[in-house]
């Protein structure tokens, strides 16, 4: 072999070796927020996601494909969020998934997703009607949406009274964050109020909701049987404290899932005892969390500054989100080629064909932590099931042993109407993406 | 040296009354416009256009609007975001309810709606001033957002109060890519900035400044206070309204009323304070400082590979420290700093 040929062979070998040594990574964009008024929620949620990613990467990735991600601080500000999305989407060969955990940011990037072919999950927030994959092919309100939560809330309150028909003549206050987020459940609550004959009293709280004296005076005068607290951020702790000051029993308050974390109850001290809130995780401990503690936090590689927050509500929510994404990756790889990085479009297919059943949850070590999620083109939500948890003064406990599902026929009807209106406005022809 | 004026003679009133009396300034501005209108759209990445330059221009326009009211007419306002919201939601409704309405006309109508709201909420300025007026304009902020969440007609009965901006099509030409949107925003902002510059140099601007400096004296020498103040509110709100419409149509695409919250009003107020109160250039410098600097700091923090939680907090700290630094070094804002620099350059290298 002459000198020239050996050089060529060496270069070819080196190039192919490099290609084997560096398999493509699955890149995920995380426009997160770790400062500002909502930092507690953001750091816990994104901490959970990154902890689970690290765990998967330690075990060798998804069929050998490691997960890569990049964070960008949005401060929960829509304008910054759009900037972050635009910045992250082209990195590392293109983002294949995005999760902003902010209704404002999600709305800001909603129109760009289908053009960029990047799927977005909105786990527990955002547009409920995005569950219709025919109109929103790239949007996934996974696990459960606001509408199904609202329906489940009324079902739970009905069960508490001893049957949904017992709600007739009762008074329910909807105390809400006066924004798109707080108004999202209104169509469901109004329809259910008409159907079951209870009186719905809507009381808005101007964001951020640090002053609620007049609202709670109004509640005290109305003497409601239940109060739905649809709050976010600092509004929740203020509501619980003001309720205590006004002598309103916390047992009658049922919070939305963004009003049901340790960050909402611990600062209120004793005031929150007996307060209950919705959740899409079952509080408790799971093998996957133990593994995170052992393999990451004991090795000093955990993402949260405080290891005690592992297994807290927001952290567990982040872990659940990451579990669903990794399962979507796995599903997509099963179809498009194992051990290969899946594209944004293929990831979309994976999210649309998820089936995280009980057996799969057991394999992951998260059995019962989240409901069974099975998605399709018609149903980008995949479940709609929630639980109710109660604060005992120290920690959250699930008070409903089974997952609750509300009036899904009603939410489906509303979803069809609302997404049809969106499709007409945007001139979209509803169809399942291939 | 750079600013040598020797040989530049003004031989007519027109020459004396130019916006930029020095040749170098005219050339620099021309070059800047050519770069902004020709080279940037060709060279800049979609990220730079859609995530950096478009919001920068839109916030500059909003700051310009507030600067007319606060900087030139001396009426402190905290309702900027509300006027932006009126502009955005009014434009949305005009396009929605009147089929075939040109988009640019809808922006103008949106701006005019904002001007009407501005006049209504400017009325208290006849009786109160300073911080008290700021508190009164705060009412605009709450009232407008309340209206938008309360009256479903304004958001076309969308269940959560979120509107989706219609596509921008002007004379059959769709502004749907970042570079096209950027050019549209650039054109609108350039024209309106020129108008504003001329307005503040004219009789109208002088009447505003007279009212700002001492309204009793202004009244004594014959300026009609009510007309002057309300005109300032109307023009300022018009600018903010157009900025709000651009924010919804050319930037976000889908907005909820909460996007125009008090926080945004404050940010625009900080823009004019840092950029320079009573200065057209200051509006642009201030918007650049408030919009671009955090992004830049964020990029730097990321390139240093700091842990994200540290990077986020560090970004805020550096940003805050820079604000304090600039306000101590130059309380009159970045525009004044630029002006001092220019004067120094005129004398350089022989200061006397």
Q: From the alpha carbons, calculate the radius of gyration of chain A and give it in angstroms.
A: 23 Å
What's the SSE pattern of chain B? HHHHHHEEEHHHHEHHHH
Q: Give the strand order, joined by hyphens, for the main sheet of chain A.
A: 6-5-7-8-9-12-13
- Average pLDDT of chain B, to the nearest integer? 90
The total strand number of chain A stands at 13
Largest interface: A-B, 47 and 42 residues
User: What fraction strand of chain B?
Assistant: under 5%
Features:
heterodimer, A: 434 residues, alpha/beta, seven-stranded mixed β-sheet, two-stranded parallel sheet, globular, B: 352 residues, mainly alpha, two-stranded antiparallel sheet, 4 strands, 2% strand
What do these coordinates show?
Chain A has 434 residues and is α/β, with parallel strands linked by helices. Chain A has 15 helices and 13 strands. Chain A has helices at residues 3-21, 39-58, 78-88, 103-116, 146-161, 180-183, 186-196, 213-222, 234-245, 262-265, 287-297, 313-336, 344-352, 358-364, 408-426; strands at 26-32, 67-73, 120-121, 139-140, 171-177, 199-205, 226-230, 253-255, 276-279, 355-356, 373-374, 387-391, 396-398. Chain A has a seven-stranded mixed beta sheet with strand order 6-5-7-8-9-12-13, with helices on both faces. A two-stranded parallel ribbon of chain A has the order 1-2. Chain A has a two-stranded parallel ribbon with strand order 3-4. The longest helix of chain A is centred in the last third of the chain and has 24 residues, at 313-336. Chain A is globular. Chain B has 352 residues and is mainly α. Chain B has 14 helices and four strands. In chain B, a hairpin with a 2-residue loop joins β2 and β3 (173-174). In chain B, α8 (203-213) packs across α10 (225-252). The mean pLDDT of chain B is 90. At the A-B interface, β2, α3, α4, α6 and α15 of A face α3, α6, β4, α12 and α13 of B.
Q: What is the structure about, briefly put?
A:
The complex is a heterodimer of chains A (434) and B (352). Chain A is α/β, with parallel strands linked by helices and 434 residues long.
């Amino acid at each position: 072999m002459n000198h020239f040929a050996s050089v060529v062979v060496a270069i070819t070998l080196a190039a192919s070796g490099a290609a084997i040594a560096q398999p493509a990574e699955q890149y995920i964009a995380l426009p997160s927020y770790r400062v500002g008024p909502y930092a507690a929620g953001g750091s816990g949620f994104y901490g959970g996601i990154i902890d689970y990613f690290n765990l998967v990467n330690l075990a060798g990735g998804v069929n050998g494909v490691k997960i890569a991600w990049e964070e960008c601080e949005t401060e929960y500000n829509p304008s910054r969020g759009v900037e972050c999305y635009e910045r992250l989407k082209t990195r590392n060969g293109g983002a294949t998934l995005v999760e902003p955990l902010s209704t404002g940011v999600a709305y800001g990037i909603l129109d760009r997703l289908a053009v960029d072919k990047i799927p977005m999950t909105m786990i527990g927030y955002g547009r409920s009607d995005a569950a219709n994959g025919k109109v929103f092919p790239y949007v996934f309100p996974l696990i459960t949406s606001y509408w199904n939560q609202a329906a489940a809330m009324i079902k739970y309150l009905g069960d508490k009274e001893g049957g949904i028909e017992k709600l007739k003549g009762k008074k329910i206050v909807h105390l809400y964050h006066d924004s798109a987020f707080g108004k999202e459940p209104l169509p469901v609550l109004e329809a259910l109020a008409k159907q079951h004959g209870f009186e719905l009293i809507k009381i808005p709280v101007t964001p951020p909701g640090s002053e609620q004296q007049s609202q709670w005076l109004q509640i005290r005068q109305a003497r409601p049987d239940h109060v739905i607290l649809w709050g976010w951020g600092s509004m929740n702790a203020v509501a619980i404290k003001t309720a205590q000051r006004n002598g309103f029993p916390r047992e009658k308050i049922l919070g939305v899932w963004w009003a049901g974390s340790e960050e909402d109850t611990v600062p209120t001290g004793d005031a929150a005892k007996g307060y209950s809130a919705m959740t899409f995780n079952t509080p408790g401990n799971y093998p996957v969390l133990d593994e995170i503690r052992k393999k990451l936090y004991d090795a000093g590689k955990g993402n949260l500054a405080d290891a005690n927050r592992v297994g807290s509500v927001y952290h567990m929510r982040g872990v659940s989100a990451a579990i669903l994404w990794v399962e979507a990756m796995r599903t997509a790889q099963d179809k498009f080629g194992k051990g290969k990085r899946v594209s944004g479009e293929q990831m979309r297919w994976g999210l649309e064909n998820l089936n995280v059943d009980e057996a799969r949850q057991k394999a992951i070590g998260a059995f019962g932590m989240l409901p069974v999620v099975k998605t399709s083109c018609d149903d980008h939500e995949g479940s709609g099931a929630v639980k109710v948890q109660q604060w005992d003064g120290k920690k959250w406990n699930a008070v409903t042993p089974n997952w609750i599902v509300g009036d899904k026929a009603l939410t489906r009807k509303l979803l069809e109407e609302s997404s049809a209106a969106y499709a007409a406005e945007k001139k979209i022809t509803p169809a399942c993406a291939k | 040296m750079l600013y040598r004026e020797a040989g530049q003679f003004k031989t007519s009133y027109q020459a004396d009354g130019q916006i930029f009396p020095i040749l170098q300034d005219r050339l620099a501005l021309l070059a800047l416009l050519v770069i902004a209108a020709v080279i940037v759209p060709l060279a800049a990445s979609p990220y730079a256009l859609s995530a950096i330059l478009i919001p920068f221009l839109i916030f500059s326009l909003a700051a310009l609007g507030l600067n007319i009211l606060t900087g030139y007419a001396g009426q402190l306002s905290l309702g900027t975001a509300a006027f932006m919201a009126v502009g955005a939601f009014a434009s949305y409704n005009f396009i929605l309810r009147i089929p075939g309405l040109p988009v640019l006309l809808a922006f103008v109508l949106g701006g005019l709606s904002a001007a009407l709201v501005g006049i209504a909420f400017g009325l208290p300025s006849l009786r109160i001033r300073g911080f008290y007026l700021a508190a009164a304009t705060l009412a605009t902020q709450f009232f407008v957002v309340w209206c938008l969440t309360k009256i479903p007609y304004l958001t076309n009965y969308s269940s959560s109060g979120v509107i989706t901006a219609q596509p921008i099509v002007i004379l059959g030409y769709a502004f749907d890519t970042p570079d096209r949107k950027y050019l549209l925003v650039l054109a609108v902002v350039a024209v309106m900035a020129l108008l504003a510059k001329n307005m503040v140099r004219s009789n109208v601007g002088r009447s505003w400044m007279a009212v700002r400096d001492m309204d009793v004296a202004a009244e004594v020498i014959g300026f009609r206070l009510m007309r002057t103040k309300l005109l300032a509110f109307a023009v300022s709100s018009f600018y903010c309204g157009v900025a709000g419409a651009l924010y919804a149509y050319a930037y976000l695409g889908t907005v909820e009323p909460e996007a125009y919250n008090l926080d945004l009003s404050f940010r625009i107020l900080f823009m004019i304070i840092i950029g320079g109160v009573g200065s057209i250039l200051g509006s642009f410098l201030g918007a650049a400082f408030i919009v671009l600097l955090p992004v830049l700091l964020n990029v730097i923090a990321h390139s240093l590979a700091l842990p994200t939680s540290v990077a986020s907090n560090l970004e805020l700290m550096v940003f805050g420290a820079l604000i304090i630094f600039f306000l101590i070094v130059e309380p009159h804002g970045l525009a004044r700093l630029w002006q001092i620099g220019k004067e120094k350059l005129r004398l350089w290298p022989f200061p006397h």
